[in-house]
Design goal:
single chain, seven-stranded mixed beta sheet, four-stranded antiparallel beta sheet, about 50% strand, globular
Length: about 120
Amino acid sequence: QVQLVESGGGLVQAGDSLRLSCATSRRTTFSRYAMGWFRQAPGKERERVARINWNGVIDYADFVKGRFTISRDNTKRTVYLQMNNLKAEDTAIYYCATASAPFSSAFNYWGQGTQVTVSS
């Protein structure tokens, strides 16, 4: 079982920035696993925000391109989400996720989430 702990959420104003962090308890080689950020707004389905694979390949949802940046520090077993120019519609609970198998993009482990609220 892998534990994921998100941090860095909060209440900000539109145009502000936040940096989310997700630390994992994974004991095996962290660098071999895909990591992702997802979010869920009230009354909406969970949606993928960004993903970073074991080989450094990154993709973003269209609604965050140019504003959010995902990165990982394999030595710290941590993934980050830098969010700039936040908008009210970015308000959601943000979840970190990882795959259960190396070199897989199937996300099976989830954190508890961190709340991001953007006031307009």
